[in-house]
Write the structure tokens for this entry.
Amino acid sequence: MSKTIELAQHLEQLHINNMYKSDFYWTWDKTDEELDAIFTVADALRDLRERNKSTRIFDSGLGISIFRDNSTRTRFSFASACNLLGLTVQDLDEKKSQIAHGETVRETANMVSFMADVIGIRDDMFIGEGHKYQKTFMDAVKEGYRDGILEQQPTLVNLQCDVDHPTQCMADMLHIIHQFGGVENLKGKKIAMTWAYSPSYGKPLSVPQGVIGLMTRFGMDVVLAHPEGYDVMPEVEEIAKKNAAATGGSYQKVATMEEAFQDADIVYPKSWAPFAAMEERTKLYQAGDQAGIDALEKKLLAQNAQHKDWTCSEEMMKKTRNGSALYLHCLPADITGLSCPEGEVDNSVFDRYLVPLYKEASYKPYVIAAMIMMSKVKDPVSALMALDAAGKRKFF
Amino acid sequence: MSKTIELAQHLEQLHINNMYKSDFYWTWDKTDEELDAIFTVADALRDLRERNKSTRIFDSGLGISIFRDNSTRTRFSFASACNLLGLTVQDLDEKKSQIAHGETVRETANMVSFMADVIGIRDDMFIGEGHKYQKTFMDAVKEGYRDGILEQQPTLVNLQCDVDHPTQCMADMLHIIHQFGGVENLKGKKIAMTWAYSPSYGKPLSVPQGVIGLMTRFGMDVVLAHPEGYDVMPEVEEIAKKNAAATGGSYQKVATMEEAFQDADIVYPKSWAPFAAMEERTKLYQAGDQAGIDALEKKLLAQNAQHKDWTCSEEMMKKTRNGSALYLHCLPADITGLSCPEGEVDNSVFDRYLVPLYKEASYKPYVIAAMIMMSKVKDPVSALMALDAAGKRKFF
Amino acid sequence: MSKTIELAQHLEQLHINNMYKSDFYWTWDKTDEELDAIFTVADALRDLRERNKSTRIFDSGLGISIFRDNSTRTRFSFASACNLLGLTVQDLDEKKSQIAHGETVRETANMVSFMADVIGIRDDMFIGEGHKYQKTFMDAVKEGYRDGILEQQPTLVNLQCDVDHPTQCMADMLHIIHQFGGVENLKGKKIAMTWAYSPSYGKPLSVPQGVIGLMTRFGMDVVLAHPEGYDVMPEVEEIAKKNAAATGGSYQKVATMEEAFQDADIVYPKSWAPFAAMEERTKLYQAGDQAGIDALEKKLLAQNAQHKDWTCSEEMMKKTRNGSALYLHCLPADITGLSCPEGEVDNSVFDRYLVPLYKEASYKPYVIAAMIMMSKVKDPVSALMALDAAGKRKFF
């Protein structure tokens, strides 16, 4: 029996009926079994690909991508996922579009979705705005479908908002699961999500928030650490606490990187911006106050620079379990001595983890494809079985 | 019998042999039966899509898009149409290309058309230039095909030129046909194509020209209204007059919006630039006279501002038949109090017509796909019947 | 028997086992039989296309394009080739990407190659850098495949580097072969690769290098001519000499365009930059010395201007065999009196050769597709036979 068939049989056990036609905003909207389904389908699609099986579930169709912030890996991951399933990507590049001429989100949403099967949106720039944009957009296409404007209802894959970065965190998690040999081995494992110094400014909070919101669901001991003033959204911390309580794991905050790294099995050191400062920035942008934005940037860079000791050095890594915790990063990292004089991680640490880091990233296209498949296919068990039995991807 | 089969049977009655391998420049190049064929195939493709039938007529192939002016909805409509038929869009972004380095249109046309099945061009910026560019381009690829450079002859879909905007006006018309329950119900209906005030400058004339050139063919009473100095191309007005005479409808010009709206069944209030001023602008651009262009813009904005009373207000709408004429717009509209302080239409009017407006736009991808299909498929009747009988678009 | 079957039978005679999974950097990496295989498959794909046969060898998959220099015809050729085989192009536009934020080539290579079947790279700007970038990129993806990050090993098509421009020169050569009725008719034919004056600055050397590195392999008398100081890379000249010795042809350098054109059967007059100056420019760029770059440009333009007599005039053409040598150019050309006051070629000469010039260009998509097919398909003979027997590209 192929791995895909085994995975399809596991999928059959799960309660996943609500996933058909559903959007993927945040991992905490989904049940444990629904997340399990995403991981299962991602693994199955990878297995099919490795065995040169076609994984097309569409003969034609469009995946619309909207990147309101720069991206390489997420862009290519979305493109790969769409291609894997038979969809063509059409990018809404807002610089090229008429949106600046006063078009509303509601109108745009309908105008770009005529034949859309899935919408991938990245909007992580402004606290309080990213999720709102995605929600407004998707409400508009649902109305469009209801009103007979669109023939099918496109579904959302959140490619990063101000709150969560589910495709990243789900890929991170799938990587952890495979590295530790299964979810059943994660109970009691310690994972440290920590702030790290970066010479750049204003990195999104969606990764640490996504990590504590997701990884508290697997019985792990999740520790968040950051310098004073770099708090994440309190709503997400509440979710992390509830998750931990439900799974027999724990969630705690500590004040130093050292404490977080102590005996950690997994470490995720990464820069982010202070939540309150990001709220302030959003207001400054809305007011068009460029002088205020510049002043804020200057202040934040100076604040960051006070915490250069928050770095994933060789010394810091030695504190982790057997000195060899699994090092995670969403990439690109600010690497001390390589991409900047002082950054998030020592070059020698980063270099030692290069292969696992790239593997971590390599799950993202499959996670996205699985999210699309679960929302577009009514009976994914039969679909996987049919793909397993059907034709080649490369014919010759 | 499916709707598609019914439509295929209707298509069979039409004289459409000349459409195979033909270009689509202007609606008035086409016979009534040829336009009927486009509408029929558009409806059939939509029916097939709604029933999850694959509408691919190509296993592979390219649709080349050339947008010499910004566009969101036409870009996505063309991409959707190509995808619907199995073509991949390759965009010629002239900013990226070597064209600025002295490449002639003839050379470019051949170099981008190696595998092109269809070419979509938008070039509406300069009076006297847009159509010429399209014609030069298509003559070159015809020669290329004749000379054995290209293996197949790509055909044109005019995505807007300085004279006509056929994909827009055909979508508008198909919307009208469906709203009124068939072409047979349009006889004697009054449609008002009127100028409206916009705070922006230099909007193309191709929409009003396209509308009077097309909608005079269905026995309707077509009224054009604009302030003094905002005349459209006289050649197109001649066509409108001839059309009206041939179909038992009428074409007339009136001097006020009020008169045009009086008892109208359909209204299409929209800003455009004066024809003579656009000719002047073209010459200034050709001479590279930026100061002249700026002065002209200033003058035209001032001229526009004298006609702020040309606006589709609630009061104006009350003059239409039962106060509830069908409101049309090609979008995006300049909406008073929403996208600008004073614009083409009251926010409350626009908002009331949102669903029909989006529906109007939703016909465009199908109209484009039908234009492509009619020019690329020798026996479209058999093709529709085969598609009706064949496989799914979404397999699972 | 179809032409494709004949070509497949010819392919069967060739020793081409090493081509599967191989990269295409330079023509001189490949054996004569391997180049023969590319020409053969290119002709077969064109024949299949002309007979409306599907040439898809992929059900889905990605071709990644990286253009580190502007391009129209190579971009469209790569897009056409990918589409022909069933691949979708995903472009890495580095302006949009995070690469500028310190990402290394190795990381980028893995991050964009998750589902890549083929990578097309153009990097011809800097002497000593273009090939290095391609090599670093491809080494990284090979490691990625070995380490289980990528499920398949993508292969390279060099779309132009600082050393060779194989897709251009192979297309040029296939054009020559067809113009002269077969490789067997090329023995003793004289081809003149000559520098020509252009008012622009810094054109790549990869075309003249590629031409002398490839065209010395067919028993032709290859002559290179350029003003003093415009030498090409000495390593490539060594290759040209060895090739000529091996095939019974000749390679020589002459000091004037007149001498090169004398009794030539084929002429390829084209501007390029001095090798030493390009090395200097690379160093200036690496040092970020904009003043130095500007000074160098000024100097080189002045140097170019001393050689305006190096132009493919009517008079010069008269010196060639029967005054009617085959005129080649990679396009776009600097045409005297059309695109510039004084350039590489007289307008009347260029115009007379328009059809053959466009045909020359039209081989490029097929050459690229053949390169991809030979590196991705283990048994291309069977694949061609299967395609010949299989379905239509345009279904109706």
Observations:
- The radius of gyration of chain C is 21 Å.
- Chain C has a mean pLDDT of 94.
- Chain C touches chain B at residues 46, 49-50, 54-56, 70-73, 75-77, 79-80, 83-84, 86, 88-89, 200, 331-332, 334-335, 338-340, 354-355, 358-359, 361-362, 364-365, 391-396 (CB under 8 Å).
